[in-house]
Amino acid sequence: MPIQDSAAWLAEYQKNLSRMRANAEAASASLSRVGGRAASPRGEVEVEVGPSGALTDLRLSPAARALEADALARLILATVHDAHRQAGAQVVDIMTDYVGDGPALQLVRDNLPVEAAPAAPRQEDDYFANPGIIS
Predict the structure, then answer these.
(1) Which residue has the higher pLDDT, 2 or 36?
(2) Which residue ranges make up each domain of the chain?
(3) Torsions phi, psi for 73 (to 5 deg)
(4) Torsion angle (degrees, nearest 10) of CA 28, 35, 77, 96
(5) What is d(CA 80, CA 24) in angstroms, rounded to the nearest whole number?
(6) What are the pLDDT digits (tens) for 47-69?
(7) Alpha carbons 94 and 11: distance in angstroms, whole number
(8) Can you list the alpha helix ranges (DSSP code H) found in 46-123?
(9) Which of 16, 20, 45, 41 is nearest to 98 (CA)?
(10) How would you label 57-72 residue by residue, b for 16+ Cβ within 10 Å and e otherwise?
(11) pLDDT tens digit sequence for 102-134
C-alpha cells in the first residue's frame, strides 16, 4: 500500500472514529433523559421511573386509602410496569436511531425488563393460611 493510500485510509478511519464517538455521546445523553410516567386508570397511583428503570416518584391519592392492601400493591406494580414500558419504548426509539434495526437493537430489546404477570388475587382461605404483612 503506497504511503498516500495509507494516509488517506488513516484519515478516513479517524473520521469514522470521530463520528462514532459523537454518536455514542449523543446516544448516552439521550439515554440519560429516558424515563416513564404512568397513572392508574382512576388516578389512585402515579409513578415515575428514571433512566435505569428505578422508581423515582410515587404518589398516592386519598382514594388509594380506600383500597385493600393487596389491591393497592397490585395497582402500584401495574402502574410501575406501565412506566417501565414507556421508558423501554424510549430506549428502543433512541437506539434505533443510532444502531438501526438489526442484531444490536435486538440485543437492546432482549435486555429490557421482562414484564411480570400481575399477581393473582388471593382467596379468603389463602389469607388465613398466609396473612402476609399487616401494617
Answers:
(1) 36
(2) 33-116
(3) -60, -45
(4) -60
(5) 29
(6) 999 988 899 999 999 999 999 99
(7) 29
(8) 69-99, 103-110
(9) 20
(10) eeebeeebeebeeeeb
(11) 998 898 888 887 554 344 454 544 444 444 444
CA–CA separation, 35 vs 94, rounded Å? 12
Per the document, the length of the chain is 135
Q: 2: helix, coil or strand?
A: coil
- Three-class SS state of 91: helix
Beta strand 55-60 with 36-39 is unpaired
Residue with grid cell 415515575, as numbered in its chain:
48
Amino acid at 66: A
Which grid coordinates are listed for 40?
Answer: 392508574
Write down the architecture of domain 33-116 according to CATH: 2-Layer Sandwich (3.30)
- Taking the C-alpha atoms of residue 113 and residue 84, their distance in angstroms, rounded to an integer, is 8
Helix axes 103-110, 69-99, angle to 10 degrees: 170
The grid cell for 68 is: 385493600
Q: How far is CA 118 from CA 4, 7, 51, 74, 122, in A?
A: 64, 60, 23, 7, 12
